[in-house]
Amino acid sequence: MTNSAVTVGGLVVRRGGREVVHDVSFAVPRGQVTGLLGPSGCGKTTVLRSIVGVQIVAGGQVHVLGRPAGSPELRRKIGYATQNPAIYADLTVAEALRYFAAILRAPKSDVDRVIAEVDLGAEAGSLVGNLSGGELSRANLAIALLGTPELLVLDEPTVGLDPVLRDSLWELFRTLAARGTTLLVSSHVMDEAARCDQLLLMREGRVLATGSPSALRERTGSADLEQAFLRLIRDKEAAHS
Ligand SMILES: Nc1ncnc2c1ncn2[C@@H]1O[C@H](COP(=O)(O)OP(=O)(O)OP(=O)(O)O)[C@@H](O)[C@H]1O
């Protein structure tokens, strides 16, 4: 068994008739939180979709937990929370989770566990259609946690959440990683980068840099990661001019 949960080599993806991911390669270590950071439209969702196996790719290889992405055996080993929740609005939170738990053949007891993990106990009986944006994204995250997947792929899970809730979700991510779960979390908020073990910085369909937050700060001589990211962009541009 390798130490990488995900390996991506030379990934190329075309969407809407143009190339949006250009020759991207990286590895995601097991049992850690890896942050996929970059500005809106840089290709984060496309890369995550390629890992989950729902994206047609034009080139390269993506291996997940030792198998090619999209292999049927991976379905129950990966939890994927998309950016736009797709949950039936006319079910309650608990009903929706019971429904997904049945599909995933997750234990019934998982429903109460994941509701508690995302702190939605008070809304368990509320209709999904009546949830606030932040509650809805937590319900979406709860679905991804059903069945205790080995790999969690979370696309901007903290968007629209207040700082307290954001903090508690990051605590949960750390707890899950401590239990051995691999997390790949996308964000365009640089202050979340410092909470990750490893970072993949993307820009314009390419991986600009990889490494731990401290290694990236050190490499760029920057005090914070936002500055480090800007420095890396400037260095790249200078190299091409
Ligand atoms: N369904 C689609 N058809 C055509 N082009 C698409 C489609 N989805 C995304 N794109 C384009 O692919 C590029 C990468 O998009 P992607 O959603 O992967 O970026 P992102 O970094 O996740 O952005 P955000 O942070 O805003 O979600 C963008 O230029 C986007 O316009």
TrEMBL record:
Domain ABC transporter positions: 6-229
InterPro entries: AAA+_ATPase, ABC_transporter-like_ATP-bd, ABC_transporter-like_CS, P-loop_NTPase
Keywords for this protein: ATP-binding, Nucleotide-binding
Keyword ATP-binding among record annotations: yes
Superkingdom of the source species: Bacteria
SMART domains on file: AAA (SM00382)
PROSITE patterns reported for this sequence: ABC_TRANSPORTER_1, ABC_TRANSPORTER_2
Keyword Cell membrane: no
GO MF: ATP binding
CDD domains registered for this protein in UniProt: ABC_DR_subfamily_A
Protein name, per record: ABC transporter ATP-binding protein
Organism classification: Bacteria, Bacillati, Actinomycetota, Actinomycetes, Pseudonocardiales
